[in-house]
Specification:
- By secondary structure, the chain is mainly α.
- The protein has one domain.
- It has four helices and no strands.
- Helix 1 packs antiparallel against helix 2, helix 1 runs parallel beside helix 3 and helix 3 packs antiparallel against helix 4.
- The N and C termini lie far apart (47 Å).
Amino acid sequence: MSSYIKLIIFIVVLLLISVAIVFIDSSMDNINQSMPEISKGIVQGDEDYNESVELLNSRSYDEASQKAKSAGDNYNESLHKLERIQDKYDKDMNEVHKNYLNAAINELEVKLKAVEELNEAIYYLEMHYNYTGSTHGSEANDLMINAVNYQNKRVNIVQENPELFS
């Protein structure tokens, strides 16, 4: 094989490696650009959920139900965005980003279950089935505690790897 052909092969391989590096960097840029919006949805969902609980405690059932629906909508939207990122970029992510994404998805799945339980609590308490409503309310609270564990895991991942989450 002539040195000219070897040079061409070398240049082609170098170009392919360069394209792969640019693609991986642009994938992470896309993920990083999406995260503030996703985080905003999670924070808004948390605010709506907490307001729903407060409204439930003051027996404002319709408003509590509306806030619970809003919390669920925010959590669902963020979850779907995270799942799209996971489906689209999973092969391009390192283990730290995968762990972060999995923790965020788990957090949102648990928060959605908590919203379901909160809605059940609202329904039963409004119908004056206090024991059943309180049971669902307790389950919602337990689920949110579990979700906070995932949230803390996510925060720890960022704190332990600040260079990857800038």
